């Protein structure tokens, strides 16, 4: 075990050194926010630093990443504002020059004249005029005219509304805030279209793809993409060889003839967890309803089958709540599982455990409802900008809740760590064969509590590259990193208690799995940051190590399936059939959703063209629900199986399982993936802004594919109905019954 622990420690320490080093580079080389933006010919000031920074706060307050995207990060209905601004600015300048020089539009020019004007545009746009001594950016009068045109365009969109972007009338009416919002949008486009000092690529490594200004994929993105694919194939081969050689060398286990957990006596604290499952089921149902509203806005823009909802529940709110509730209920499921298993781990009921569980339950409800109300108030402009940051809408996908609610949730997680951790420490002190498994469990529990606070590492006026860096620490490392380790160890512990695995095998396998996963997962965080105003190191390290994340996913599910095949002859295992089936489905979606669809958008050469398109939504749905959602559901079912003393009628669970999985497949195959492919082709052949343009998204073909999603959504919703029905019914039964 010593070698396994050395490998685990080395991977974690070295990986965080690399991740933090890139973080220091992000801080030092991020695109500058100028003190002023002035016109070269006249010296007139167009924007100030305050305009840009406050404009970012304004953008956050109206929903931020839930209303279109910036640098490819955000929602899919409205445009990517940076790419859209760049394209409109370029078209305006080219047409203005063509009219002035040739008295015709740019599109009607001869090829030679087009090339001459395009060269002039590239020189004007891509030349970095930032003066580090004065902190000023100078722009040409021609560009200023384009900026004024864009400002008028976006002012109309946000004040008068734009149905095809699902932006309601009056989303933002304050003229000062509108001007500041436009200042921020200009800055994001400037960073994406202006070359870094002494380089021939922009601050966003030439993202977005925009042929008019010469934004094309860089050699670095191409080289590291190829290297990541070679590395992926190499390590898949190596891991497969290792698996074939060693997967049958674990310690032999004498499989029991009856359920080892039949004599389990539930404690008061375990019974207190039951109410979590009822509330979690209600959150799941609400999330699905909000998902239906959100996806329908992509068809009608402002309405739901003719009913005008946008004035009260705009797209930015329904999508915020939809994505946020997913994180809430999945995290709550895993945390409740930890609270349930804690007494099983230690073998005793700790003092004040019931009080802590009840306190966390109330805190969960307050945080969920309070943050949702704050976001609604923020988007409807009832809060000033600073109040919005703390209590309203922060504007960043999966981190939308206000800073106060983040801190409140962080305090709750610290309490959870103490409540679960003390049971694990007590069990470790027994120094039995499960010691190593329990140590890695304790590490994951502490990490879950600690890494949530990475979301507090930026402030109200932090720059976009810095915020994105810490945001992905939370979204990737907290959710996809240490929660994944926690889940692996929890499943190993459950199988250990069932005597399916030996303590030695469970401990060694869990540590080895965590090592393999984190070897790619920690530094692999950077694959979210290729084109976010970050240095080229993010591309090099992100592409290399995120490819390694896919390696273990290629073998997911074999062990679970193997154990199921070995034990299906034992009649007592049939009572755990559906939890194990959910774990098998998790393995399938881990391979397909996280592996195949994740790697589809993972290499820089792919993400350059398809970041923020429906291909991202394919990965998001199949990985977030297919892996983490189904895993959370599996945890609920197995906990209820421990609680319940009656024979289950499996009809509801059977229907839930198959409707959920078939619905998810239909949702992807009939709608999300075809739309993503159409968008990807458009982005590659014409430019990124065209792939996000309303002309494409509201074309007859794409509209038909959007409606086709209803098939998968209805099937999926039926599965949710049956799962929630079963969970609530069984939880109520267990609450009423006496031990």
Q: Which features characterize this protein?
A:
about 750 residues, mainly alpha, about 70% helix, two-stranded antiparallel sheet, single chain
> What percent of the residues sit in helical stretches (DSSP H or I)?
55-70%
Number of helices: 25
Oligomer: single chain
Q: In terms of structural class, how would the helical and strand content be classed?
A: mainly alpha
Name the beta content range: under 5%
Q: How many strands, what sense, and barrel or not for the largest sheet?
A: 3 strands, mixed
Mean of all residue-level pLDDT scores? 91
Radius of gyration: 27 Å
How far apart are the termini? 40 Å
Instruction: Give the low-pLDDT segments.
Output: none
Q: What is the tally of beta strands?
A: 7
Strands of the largest sheet, in order across it? 2-1-5
Shape, per Cα inertia axes: globular
